[in-house]
Amino acid sequence: MQIPRKQINISELFVSIQGEGKYLGHPSIFIRTSGCNLKCRWGQTKCDTPYTSWDPESNPVTIKRIIDNVKNLSQKYPEINELILTGGEPMIQKNLHLLIDEIKMLNYFITLETNGTSAKHLNLDFISISPKLKSSTPVESNFEKMHEEKRYNKEALLFWLDNYDCQLKFVVNVPEDELEILNLLSDLNYNSPDTIYLMPQGIDSKQLKENSKLCVDICLSHGWNVSPRAHIDIFGNIRGK
Ligand code: SF4
């Protein structure tokens, strides 16, 4: 079978700004894959994109069609040169490497947004890793055990950190997250505070504001960075933004 005929589960493809981390505010093309190997839930708040994780849409699209759509967007937005692969968890798509190679031929700077539970060599420019903390575990659900077992993969995190330009973004929800982040960084022997971002958990501006104060307090103690979640602040937690 020709590569362009192979498929990837896609949830949405759109243009927006990067809302988080080092490249905050950069205009970008987003390809959001569907499906995730984790099931985050903070209290009663599920993942901010439940349509890619808890209730994933099965929407297989050929690589050719995805690339055609990217080319259409590139004609409409010729000044955009960054493309973000996000999810869900893009790494669970078995044909992801084929899509990345095709996108690279269009000369985009490609960021992979991943939960860091798996890793392999791919033709990527930047890895935005968001390891999930215990506060994300969906307690008393069918997914609790699975989520808890999978959410931290030291080997995968070290692979990314050792081989690629990376940032670590942590979703912060409770004060206990601080100690867990410190323990995780110690376990990885990782000491690059300028590449560490804390983001408030929340799916509306009110929640984000409350948890941002906690992020600030923690970051001031350790020299880490606070990252807003600008897309939620600006647009609300809606699709395609
Ligand atoms: S890892 Fe990301 S996409 Fe998957 S459930 Fe958690 S927040 Fe959602």
Across the major sheet, the strand order is 5-1-2-6-7-8-9-10-11
What fraction strand?
15-25%
The total beta strand count reads 11
CATH superfamily of the domain at 3-170: Aldolase class I
> Count of DSSP helices?
7
**Which distinct ligands sit in these coordinates?**
iron/sulfur cluster
* Mean pLDDT over all positions: 95
Q: Any idea of the CATH class of the domain at 3-170?
A: Alpha Beta
SSE string, helix = H, strand = E? EEEEEHEHEEHHEHEHEH
Low-confidence stretches: none
What is the name of the CATH architecture of the domain at 3-170? Alpha-Beta Barrel
Compute the CA-based radius of gyration: 17 Å
Distance between the termini: 34 Å
Name the helicity range: 25-40%
Shape, per Cα inertia axes: globular
Summarize the structure.
The chain has seven helices and eleven strands. It has 241 residues and is an alpha/beta fold. β9, α5 and β10 form a beta-alpha-beta unit.
Descriptive account of the structure:
With about 240 residues, the protein is of the alpha/beta class. It has a domain of about 170 residues: Aldolase class I (TIM Barrel), CATH 3.20.20. The chain has seven helices and eleven strands. The longest helix has 18 residues. Bound molecules: iron/sulfur cluster. The site of iron/sulfur cluster has 13 residues, from loops.
